[in-house]
Each structure stands twice: as C-alpha cells, then as structure tokens.
Amino acid sequence: MWSMDISAISRVSSVTSSLPHQAKTRSSFCIPKPWSFNCKRSSAPQLYKSHFVTCSALGDENSPLGLDVPFPRDYSELIEQAKEAAELAFKDEKQLMEIEFPTAGLESVPGDGEGGIEMTGSMQLIREFCDSFVTSEKVTRTRIFFPEAKEVEFARKSIFGGASFKLDYLTKPSFFEDFGFFEKVKMSDRVKPEDETFVVAYPYFNVNEMLVVEELYKEAVENNSRKMIIFNGELDRIRSGYYPPFFYPKLGALTKTFLPKIETIYYIHNFKGRNGGTLFRCYPGPWKVLRQLNGKYVCLHQQETMPSLKEVALDILTSTQSFKSLL
C-alpha cells in the first residue's frame, strides 16, 4: 500500500501554475514515491460522527442546519462521501457531474500547494475514488481522461500502474509546448462503443483543456446514457471570470453553454482570513457555509443553489462574523 502525508509536502512561494497560459511538463515536477491516503474501504456505508453544531446564524432558527452530512475529518472520509454522492447522482440519472476539493490539505486554499504536486495528489485521489466507486465489472468500461499524453504516461508508470481502467488524454504536446500550445485531440476518435463512464482529471492547466471537455460531452455523453465526472477541474476559475472574456471568448462562453449543465456532487472551497470559512456540498444535500469554532464545524448558512464565491466571501461570511459570541 502506498503512503503519503500531504501536510508534509513542501510549499513554494511562487505559484506560477495559476497563470492562464501556463504550460505543464512532468520533467519539472517532483515525482514522489507511490502514495496512498490510507482510504479505508467498506462494503457497507460507514457512519461518521457528526462534526456540526446544530444552529443557524442566518435564516429560520427553527430549521436545524448541518445534520445530514458531516464535514470530512480526513481524505479517507472525503473519498467515502464523494463515492456515496456519486452513487446517488448516478441513480438520479445525472450525466454531467463535478467533484472539487483541495488536495494540499482539507483546510487549504488554491495556491497553497505547488502545481505539479497538486496534480499528483489529484491523480492519487482519483485512483482511490475509482477503486472505491467503480464496480469490478465496470472497470474496463471506465475511461479516465488526463490533461495530456505525458500525464497518461506518468500515470501508467506510477499511480495507475496495474489498473484496468482505460487511460486517455485530452491534448498532446506540440512543437510549441514551451509556449503553452498543445495539439487538439478529436474526441470522437478516443471514445469506444463500450465506454460507459468518463472521469476527467484536473483539466485546468491549459485553457484549451476545458474546451475539449465540452467537446467530449457533446460528442459522447449528451445524447446517450454515458456519464461524465469532472474531477478537480477548478471550474471556479471560469465561473468567477478569472479568464477575461475579451481574451478568452470561447472559455467565457462556457458559463452559459456548458457549466449550467453540471451538477456539483461534491465540493469543498475554503476561505482564509478574519472572516474565513468553508463552502461545502455533498449531493443531494444543500450548499452549506461552514465555520470552524472550538474544533467543530458550525453551519452558518445553507441554500439549494450554489452561491458564488464572491457572495460567500463578501456577504455570508462577513454577515456572520459575530456568530462566535452566540455560541
């Protein structure tokens, strides 16, 4: 069994991976020994002790919040929760789904970890998730798309070594790779008739990757019974306008044509600072804004639709900054 402690990963002060044009190469990455997050598997759903305090800073005080799904204590519980969320979403015939959470620690925020290490962390967690979620008879019908061909090669030699999942890629390097250019792959040529489920791994380092994901959805998922899960795709960059529409019109258009079709089935986004907190969702439950007080997660607010990160940071969390005095 592989072993790893994410909290022990060294940090770097410059996070160049957040730049829209940043190209990625495995040659510059630290390749650690094979890992595991010590995820425990069980044939029956495991019940966890709730970490919530039953109270509400906003809304009807007679409506208890936060009792259905506890915030995970570690990545083992996170994988179990994400698996159960995916199972319920599949039963509800959801076709296009998103799983998003930090890989540099459950309380980390974007930029806390170095890009290459975060990708490798996502790769390991995808392996853990697929091993738990995908049944043995569905393994060869599950195709996992990595951002580009070199990433598939790395996966086969390390974390996905010996696995029966179909490994594939969205783009492949071109002659101008160092400038962030990659050759587009025709998705209809990659898909096989027996494919039932697609897992798309962290398609965020190159702006073209998410455009290819949309193409994959349109050509191979939208008009049939296949399912697609986008795993740690950092879709919030597109939702928040991180990529200026003037320079990235096709990417900006996804907020109207593609993103509204996505069901976010598992999600964790942390906010640091004086009014810090966490936006959390586990399908089919509501969206919750949490704050950690005295070692427990308190649910400050919940709603059925996803709030914007700006709304959570500037409205919800600031409106509940005096909540600690109420406990």
TrEMBL record:
Protein name: DUF1995 domain-containing protein
Pfam family, one: DUF1995
Annotated source species: Papaver nudicaule (Iceland poppy)
Domain DUF1995: 72-313
